[in-house]
Amino acid sequence: MSTHLAITLLVVAFLLLLVVQVVILFYVRGALTGDEASEPVDEEPQPHRRTETAGLVGRLRRNGAEQHSRTVREIEALIDLRALVPARTTMPSTQGWAASPLTVSALVREVLETRPQLVVEAGSGGSSVWVGYCLERNGGGRCVSLDHDADYAAKTRADIERHGLTDYVEVVHCPLVSVDVAGETFQWYDLSKVEGLDGIDIVFVDGPPGTTGPLARYPAFPVLRDRCAPGARFILDDAARPDEKAIVHRWTHEHGATVVDRTPGPLGCATVRAD
Ligand SMILES: C[S@@+](CC[C@H](N)C(=O)[O-])C[C@H]1O[C@@H](n2cnc3c(N)ncnc32)[C@H](O)[C@@H]1O
């Protein structure tokens, strides 16, 4: 082979290699960037994308405004509560699992206005302290607060002692047991642990937690109704949650309860009359 032919073949081979590299590079770039690689970066958003973005921004604004409005209402309720029910020492927080200021306001209003002899609370905590102060201010009445959790019951008991309200509030540790309501079984408080639950005027339903089973708070009305005084009220917390909506529906449709009040708030509460 002549030197000239060898050089020509080398150049052709080099050019072929170059073409193959360019083709490979082109495909790799396409795979990494997708279709966008071929779109101009400063292209105007499509009309449907502009509408979607505007809708999202609108929803965020509305959610923000609603959230702000709720927070303000909760703060106003807490300020009113503090003025209405002065405490001797620091109150438990209204955050976390505790009843919100708007729910506590509904409960406090009910206790101060109706001057109950007996309040039963399903789920103890900060609400027990608020009720204790209201009964003290009323000059009588007692609250029996049920808690399925021994540690939590002890914590609430300590709060009641710290506030000097043991004459008004008794916290009872009631483990959950199987309770039959018209052929359905629920996990609910073991009432054999409590004495003297007759003539109930107000039931505050804030337990057991939903984590203990579906419609966990449903048994409160069917189980306690026969132990209630005429005109008794049940206040159900978190009434806007799907489970609690279903509970109110069943209380009213299956057991003849009447909804007499609903409060706003993140989850709100519903007050129903037993007769
Ligand atoms: C919704 S809480 C009751 C809150 C109470 N009524 C109040 O206003 O503070 C229902 C039950 O959940 C349990 N509990 C309360 N706080 C909890 C927490 N941070 N973590 C787990 N369980 C809690 C307690 O046993 C309580 O009886």
UniProtKB/TrEMBL annotation:
Domain of life: Bacteria
Molecular function in Gene Ontology: methyltransferase activity
Segments passing through the bilayer: 6-28
InterPro entries documented for this protein: SAM-dependent_MTases_sf
GO biological process, one term: methylation
Keywords, comma-separated and alphabetical: Membrane, Methyltransferase, Transferase, Transmembrane, Transmembrane helix
Protein's name according to its UniProt entry: Class I SAM-dependent methyltransferase
